[in-house]
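User: quick one, fold this
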Amino acid sequence: MIRKKAFLITQSALCIVAAGLLAAGALCLYIDGAAKQAEGDLFYYMFTRERAGAKLLPVLPVIFCAFGMTLAGLILNIRDENADKPVRDEKLLRNLGNLQDKAVHQQATSGELYLRVAVMILAVCLIIAGILNGGLEDVLAKGAAICTECIGLG
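Assistant:
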């Protein structure tokens, strides 16, 4: 029980650290680009594949560790037994009635777990293929155009 809890806490912490590092990298990328544009280089394109890759590279080990722990947890079926149970909030129960008896929770079968893992791996492969194909640059260019033209930001 303690090992499961330690595993889940470590997995959650790795995911939170990875998200924080990615957000910090994106913020640094934006600040660097805004500083260049403020210096007078109006055609400085801050979101390129090379710059994004340079900010992503230090974060990759944390992302791979978090992804590996998630896969290991799925394969070894390490999960929190209380995750499917509703939280017993007395105030909520008084206001809404006893919803705990009405809730129906299903356990995922091993086939469903393998299907989820397969879909997750396929999604990651397609995201990587899109980045390598140049789709990241297109999406960022279109997003910047929408912000500056339609919404009026920038």
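User: anything notable?
Assistant: Residues 2-81+108-151 form one domain.
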